[in-house]
């Protein structure tokens, strides 16, 4: 009776390489430096605007409206699940599955941040800010004329119902995205789409 031949493939180095590769990957949520510029040409880029909105600026009378950190924290448990799946995929030597799990986690975090922004983060806009926003369009100017007898409190209340504090032109929210970077080199491995 012929003896069975058993072939053993040593994949230890492949698995070690995959695990090392996973530990070198960082998933970042926010405004990458490559998409920091604003269409209106202002000196303050989207990253600076995000930082100021997240932390506030008492010097400039801008209240904090945290959205990046709370948005990422809101999907923390799901992110951990994706990271565990990525680690298992690394052990299996499947780099594409690792990247897929990191991409799913990153995309979910970006969606969560944008959901928080669209939820009208308090405090409401100041009456002066509501007026300034309205003055930029013909329809807004007409609205302001109709509200000419309104008090600051009434204008602020109208703004709280009809305006979203962190969405003015839409440029900032459009540029919130994700990237996967190599920890050691700082090079972007993969990134979300930005306009």
Explain how this protein is built.
By secondary structure, the chain is mainly alpha-helical. The protein has a domain at 12-33 and 43-123 and 165-191. Helices cover 52% and strands 8% of the residues. It is built from nine helices and three strands; from the N terminus they run H-E-H-H-H-H-H-H-H-H-E-E. The protein has a three-stranded antiparallel beta sheet with strand order 1-2-3. Strand 2 and strand 3 form a beta hairpin. The model has no long low-confidence stretch (mean pLDDT 87).
Rg over C-alpha atoms, rounded to the nearest angstrom? 24 Å
In whole angstroms, the N-to-C terminal distance is 68 Å
Taking pLDDT < 50 over at least 5 consecutive residues as the criterion, the unreliable ranges are none
Cross-sheet strand order for the largest sheet: 1-2-3
Quick summary of this structure?
The protein is mainly α and 195 residues long. The protein contains 9 helices and 3 strands; from the N terminus they run H-E-H-H-H-H-H-H-H-H-E-E. Strand 2 and strand 3 form a beta hairpin.
């Amino acid at each position: 009776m012929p003896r069975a031949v058993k072939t053993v493939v040593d994949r230890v180095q492949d698995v070690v390489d995959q695990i090392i590769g996973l530990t070198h990957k960082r998933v970042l949520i926010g405004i990458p430096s490559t998409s920091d510029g604003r269409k209106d040409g202002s000196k303050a880029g989207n990253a600076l605007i995000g930082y100021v909105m997240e932390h506030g600026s008492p010097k400039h009378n801008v209240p904090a409206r945290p959205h990046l950190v709370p948005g990422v924290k809101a999907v923390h448990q799901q992110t951990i699940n994706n990271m565990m799946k990525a680690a298992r995929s690394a052990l299996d030597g499947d780099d594409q599955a690792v990247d897929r799990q990191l991409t799913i986690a990153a995309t979910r975090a970006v969606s969560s941040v944008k959901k928080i922004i669209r939820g009208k983060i308090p405090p409401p806009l100041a009456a002066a800010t509501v007026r300034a926003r309205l003055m930029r369009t013909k329809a807004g100017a007409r609205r302001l004329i109709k509200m000419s007898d309104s008090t600051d409190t009434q204008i602020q209340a109208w703004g709280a119902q009809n305006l979203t504090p962190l969405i003015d032109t839409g440029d900032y929210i459009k540029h919130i995205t994700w990237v996967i970077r190599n920890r050691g080199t700082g090079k972007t491995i993969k990134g979300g789409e930005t306009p």
